[in-house]
Amino acid sequence: MLINDRLAYASRTLSVVLAVLLAVSCVTTRPPGPIDIARDQFAKGDVESGFKTLEDGLRNEPGSLEMGNFYRARIVENKQEDRSINFFKQLTESGGLPNEAYYNFAFAYIDKIPRVGPMGAGFLSKRSIAQFKIVLDKDQNDWIANYGIGMNYLHWPDYFKKTEGALGYFETCMRLQSGKPVKPSYLLTYLRMGDALIRGGEIERAYQVWNDGSKLFPRHRDLQARLDTPRDRIETVIRNLYNPNNSIGAIDTNIEILWASVVPEKVVPLERNTLQQAGVGGQLRGASTAPEASQLNLFSWFTRNLPYLSDRNAIAKVDMTSLGVKQGSRLESRVSAIAYGMITGFMAEMEGESDAALRSKANSVDSFTRPFFHEGLGMGYAAAVSIESSGELKTMAAAMKQIDPNFQRLHLAGAGMWFGLEGTKEPDRVAAAFSQLGPFGEAYAYEGYGFARTLFYYKSNAQTIDAGALLRPEAAANFYHGVGRAFWILSGADPGVAEQTLETVPIDYRSHAYSGYAMGMAFTQVDDLKAVFSRIDVAGDNPHRSQFLTGITMGLYIRRLGDPEYVDTMLKQSASGDQCRARQLLAVGEAALKEAGRGTGDLHANWRAAIQARIEKEAGARSSFTSCV
What we know:
This protein is mainly α.
């Protein structure tokens, strides 16, 4: 028996050892997955291979949230947010993929928010919401999609009035999780719903929601921090958490909590956070960005005036004094109408509507305002493009052309305006982005860039126009042409003020500023040719008279390209002498454009030079185009 016992014992021991060895063998021989391979590639510094490994993995497993989360984390680390956006765009374009693919796409847009400034954040958030809505179209009871939309809206500035919408999505999440086995992710609903209630002014209800949450997640530090905050301070604390300076705060999109087995120590802490590497720290938490002072001033002006800028019947209430426009002046109502057009186009693009819908909106705007609506579309398109993302900007001309090719120049100028508005000052970064547009697009983008930087920053810092001198000469010429356009508005149509500001432009580029000034004057006053030509007649023997006439020609011609019927109507309503002079200049513009088109390089500058040469060839710049017989 002893021998048999020993044999039995040995047999059992051998069985255990073999089982262990088999288990170890299975573990050690399991082939590494895409995350394992990519992690090793990133550790060795082979970033490109790491991205390709993960992208191939997501093509094979588009429903992998974990792989998508790891991929986006590495994207953010390497500041390549456009890569992940483009990847998920291509991945999902055929449709019919698991919901997780659309979640990943939605979070990829949010990843880019810290890179584009407060207004561009709104565009990215809208695109994120659109991906979540694709899921909701299939299943209104999808918890993640409802939470994702609510979380997006919760971060929007107050003036967009999205808090109530955010609350509705969180209420749906609460209904969906009620009575279900508790998951760590359900804590998010209690935190975010309470925060939304605070922003909506329902303070007592918010504390009740947090109290309810504490019963399921007792003493969790994020819930407790809210409950411990006095009621007279909680609104300020929550507002700072989501949108300091009333801008859209960045959002950490690490989503590990969705498959976590235990509740993370920190989920949505009350204190502001800087963005950490995804996969480390809190889940989907707010993070701070710090716009520069000049941006905050512009942003403040925008938020104060948005209710009027977006209402055609209320634009007289827009405060234009910061732009040097006197209250009650004829120019005030004109500039307000221009601003209304730009903002309307900007907001229309922000809605992410189809080309057909945008075209319809543009056509519904009155003829005077329509060109500025198209400039706003260009601004809106560029707002969701980071300055480093030249590849994305490169597609803009083709994308905008689908809406209306007759306003292509204005779309491009609008894009340049956006980069001027958002405070981008580094010439090298601007040049790298604009170079992707080709000579034609680049020229108009620089013009818009110079226009916006001057219009919104010159009053507080006259040195802002010095940035143009740091550009290469061809780009600087177009930049200062835009500077001149802005001076038309900043001078309040006062010739004396205009001369003073135009003389601040570096002498090598002053002629371009003069033609830009006149272009802005004619483009915005095509319905008042008497005022346009009176300004030229007053100029008398001004040595820049030919540049004035060049700018008028460009303004009238570009305006007619977009809406020939409107311009012809305005000409017919003008005095015969002014009508005749305008038609002469339009003929010069057309002939010069054909001539410039046969050359190479910068069409904008070539056209400008050809117009001026033709004008000066006439009876003399000082006497030509002063009358018609």
